[in-house]
Amino acid sequence: MATDALVIGSGFGGAVVACRLAEAGYRVVVLERGRRWEPNTFPRAPGDPWTWDQADPANSNGWLDLRMYRRVAVAQGAGVGGGSLIYANVSIEADPATFASGWPPEITFDELRPHYVTVGRMLDVQTIPRSQWPARTDLMAEAAARVGHRDRFRPVGLAVTFDPNWTPGDSGAYDAARSTRFVNPQGREQGTCVHLGECSIGCPVLAKNTVDLNYLARAESLGADVRPLTIARSIGKDDDGYEVHVERIENGTLHPGVERARIVVLAAGSLGSTEVLLRSRDVARTLPGLPEALGVGWSTNGDFLTIGWHGDRDVAPTRGPTITSAIDFSDGAVGGRQFVIEDGGFPDLLSAYRRRHQRSFSPWRRRRLLDAAVGTLVGDPGGIDHVMPWFSQGRDAADGRLRLRKRWWLFGPPQLTIEWNADASRPTIEAIIDTHRQLAQATNGRPILPATWRLGSYLITPHPLGGCRMGTGPDDSVVDHGGAVWGHPNLYVADGSIVPTAIGLNPSRTIAALAERIAGRIVAAGR
Ligand SMILES: Cc1cc2nc3c(=O)[nH]c(=O)nc-3n(C[C@H](O)[C@H](O)[C@H](O)COP(=O)(O)OP(=O)(O)OC[C@H]3O[C@@H](n4cnc5c(N)ncnc54)[C@H](O)[C@@H]3O)c2cc1C
Ligand code: SF4
């Protein structure tokens, strides 16, 4: 039986839409390719399900989907809760100037303001209490002051619940048992942050306010049916709506099936949603009329990481939330380039990986790139406590393109590829690198550029944006300002793929705010 609304993907966009449609009385089914994760199943040991393999999801359906393309790699989460499971919790609004060009005129900061507020409330966004600043936050504040930009430093909004009474100096402070348990407004049990530094591999005490614990929890309490391990492959028209061709992962095998609904909302992320629509248009040919702009205007969001080696101070990057603060240059003060600098932390597991692999040479380019990235991230041998990951995002050229390509050496259907190179974005990346250098050197640090960038202008982005971008008509875009696919009534996209330009800072709050607006318009349009 057809349901009212099928939502494909359960990250920021999908969770918001599922919640609001369920509240409005719609029968909602959420299809999610990944697993439902719990603290006792989060990956930790080497043999755990760490990775998602798009070429073999039946056997490899783990936590992190890391895809290596020719000139860029993309990291994404897989599971119920999507990118919120793996993300660094930063939940901040875009700079108002972001919407000045490249966006439909209906989308302005003022238009999004109430939705930003709603998202902030649902995710209980707060800044880290002053008494809990890890060493990294102090280093950020000091570095900003030393280069004459004290006023640009600020702690960032985090979707993390802190206990104001927790102090790092207490004995046993970093023990999970020190986390205070509470029940959130959606009825899920969580705990307060005890600075375990494992935000990107699943918070053991559930201090992260991930969307499965709030938006999706509310949707499920209202009857939404969330189906993990179900991959949407393509969409076609049905008499009264759409049919979605799926493959369900069961016992290491893919089982095909069809789901039907009057309304379909794609929220599979920048790569996921674009791939489903490309397959529907070009392979299954079930939606042949999709716009030519599909796949165009893809952005890395200008993500860049420089390692600072601060041999004379304890930076302790494995302590505290992954990101805590920013130095904001989004006003273009550095050569007109817009970017923000953030501190970065990482779980201690990376050094274990490097210790295991540093003496082996892999014949596989993919493994060598991963080793280089991890090597850069953990810095020189001698102790990760002196490593400061200077992280950044900037407004890149958003000139990448997603396509399906048949590889001559592979059987089977064509695969997603990304055509992207650093040329047009280089001035922004260089401005970021210069600023990283200044900040590191001003605090007695030695900046080390990633080997991936030095050797091949290769970027790794956790913030892919675009592919189904919003615009003013089918000639230049895939969806309108309300996420509706041009020429296909009741087919929507509500995730990072609709963002038409780089945001130049952490994008999830903007994605969720856009999804709030889209859900409101679907409900207002009536059944
Ligand atoms: C390590 C890391 C740290 C990050 N830190 C931050 C941060 O601090 N702040 C911030 O704002 N952003 C951060 N991000 C980025 C953020 O996670 C993404 O911008 C955000 O999750 C995108 O939201 P979305 O709804 O577009 O897609 P997602 O949240 O990625 O959700 C898409 C969902 O769809 C599922 N899916 C994909 N294809 C299919 C399919 N065919 N069928 C069914 N399901 C499918 C996926 O498994 C996923 O659950 C980080 C990302 C990473 C990787
Ligand atoms: S720092 Fe630790 S306790 Fe706090 S949110 Fe991250 S993983 Fe959870």
Spans of at least 5 consecutive residues with low confidence? none
Bound compounds, each kind once, are: flavin-adenine dinucleotide, iron/sulfur cluster
Please report the distance between the alpha carbons of the first and last residues.
Answer: 17 Å
Largest β sheet strand count, sense and barrel closure:
7 strands, mixed
Helix content: 10-25%
Given helix and strand content, the structural type is alpha+beta
Tally the beta strands: 21
Total helices: the number is 11
Arithmetic mean of pLDDT: 93
Query: Which radius of gyration do the C-alpha atoms yield?
Result: 22 Å
The fraction of residues assigned to DSSP E strands is 15-25%
Mass-distribution shape:
globular
Protein model, in words:
Helix 3 (109-122) packs across helix 11 (508-525). The protein is globular, with a radius of gyration of 22 Å. The chain has helices at residues 12-23, 83-86, 109-122, 135-146, 215-221, 269-283, 349-357, 365-378, 426-442, 451-456, 508-525; strands spanning 3-8, 28-31, 64-68, 72-77, 153-155, 181-183, 189-191, 225-227, 230-238, 241-250, 253-266, 296-298, 304-309, 325-334, 337-343, 387-394, 400-405, 415-419, 446-448, 459-461, 491-493. It contains 11 helices and 21 strands. By secondary structure, the protein is an alpha+beta fold. The structure holds flavin-adenine dinucleotide and iron/sulfur cluster (SF4).
